[in-house]
Amino acid sequence: MVVNKSKAAFRTIAEVAEELGVATHVLRFWETKFSQIKPMKRSGGRRYYRPDDVELVKTIKHFLYDERYTIEGVQKLFKEKGVKNLVGEEIQKDFFNVPEIEPDAPMREFLSGLRQKLSALQHSLAAAVEKSKQS
Predict the structure, then answer these.
(1) pLDDT tens readout for residues 68-88
(2) What is the largest CA-CA distance in the chain?
(3) Is residue 5 in some structural domain?
């Protein structure tokens, strides 16, 4: 079941495995052989692959399965030519780098009101916490 996610979305190991057509244990094994694969791990050890990780494992799969390299051969290739040269310039790109936009007057007014509401909520929560401590 492939879910339509944006390019910048994190993916579970199962989603990446399905997309690549490999088993999840293969991806975990590749993590032990390629230090460049560093999925984010959340509580319980659940892996979340960043877009860069997905591109990297696609490249590794290509060299192993299509080009018929050995794991040692791919490691040597990464060391000699560099991961960025093999995977492409997209690797290590900050997918969450949003260009700064100067908000117009209505947006500034909206954001100012939102900031005030959040501040009031923060004070209310702090007061409620303090009251519960006294009880």
Answers:
(1) 999 999 999 989 888 877 776
(2) 69
(3) no
